[in-house]
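User: Predict the complex with flavin-adenine dinucleotide.
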Amino acid sequence: MMYPAPFRYHRPENLNAALQLLQRLGEDAKPLAGGQTLIPMLKMRVGDVTDLVDIGRLPDLDEIQLGESEARIGALATHARIAASSVAQRLPSVRDCAGGIADAQVRARGTIGGSISTGDPSTDWAPMLHTMAAIVEIQGPGGKREVAIDDFITDAYTTVLQTGELVTGVRIPLPPARSGGAYIGYKRSAPAYPTAAVGIQLTLDENDVCIAARCVLSAVASRPVTSAAADAALVGTRLTEEDLRAAGELIIADTNPPADVRGSADYKRSVLRGLFLQVGAKALQRAKGENIEGEHNYV
Ligand SMILES: Cc1cc2nc3c(=O)[nH]c(=O)nc-3n(C[C@H](O)[C@H](O)[C@H](O)COP(=O)(O)OP(=O)(O)OC[C@H]3O[C@@H](n4cnc5c(N)ncnc54)[C@H](O)[C@@H]3O)c2cc1C
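Assistant: Here is the predicted structure with flavin-adenine dinucleotide placed in the model:
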């Protein structure tokens, strides 16, 4: 790895100062959060970055709150803190996701805000947050705005963030009773991004019939893959293996997995088929009230 090109380093005292600085410096200035993506990119000399605005120690952006009807996670909350939080205890798929990202070093520094802001098609938070219909809070020169997570990433490495804007947090509506979710990434090793990942969130009625479902696939297209047809196919069923397999085929048909060092397109589709059944079964058990541990799968 090379040394980064020279850049200026700024550490503003508070959020307003950071926003003003980012606006004044323009598009070649980048906010620095955990640095787990940005620093390696700088060392590879990707992009023209003249200024780093270190937001990593800004007060109040790392709070994690579990309320009556929603959870809120500040942009600077690290994966490790989220994994150990009350929100992860209440929402096991949050725990699956946070606890399975990379290794302990990356989880100790990397943040949820930084993760979604990269728009990297292989990262775990954006797809996981889709299953929970999360909202992204953004603040910029024009004030505050909110964007549904589904609309936040528009293409590979591209988000709706404008120059000078920061993600300040994400809000997750709490699901009703008899809901459960799971998220599993399939990885070659802990410090590797997933080859493929699947997330599913379900709600059951008192007869164990599915009344709401949101599923997602990740790392197999330029952005998280969602499918209204697959979600609808799960609703009204008891989520047998056949029901899951049929819905899985609907969403997998919408993928276009890149052939790369992690495997061929066919290999990734077959990984997705296995993961979809596994994640669906785990989400179902959790919706029925079982306390199931979650962990990523390793090759
Ligand atoms: C070896 C390794 C393995 C990894 N494996 C995985 C994995 O399996 N799954 C996974 O999901 N991730 C993985 N990651 C990425 C990691 O999760 C990082 O958390 C994430 O990529 C970026 O978070 P960060 O806080 O470090 O952001 P930074 O690196 O500081 O910033 C990343 C980008 O986001 C911008 N940014 C940061 N914060 C904000 C904000 N609040 N508002 C607007 N823009 C912002 C920065 O300007 C920069 O462009 C891995 C990273 C490494 C180094």
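The chain has twelve helices and 15 strands.
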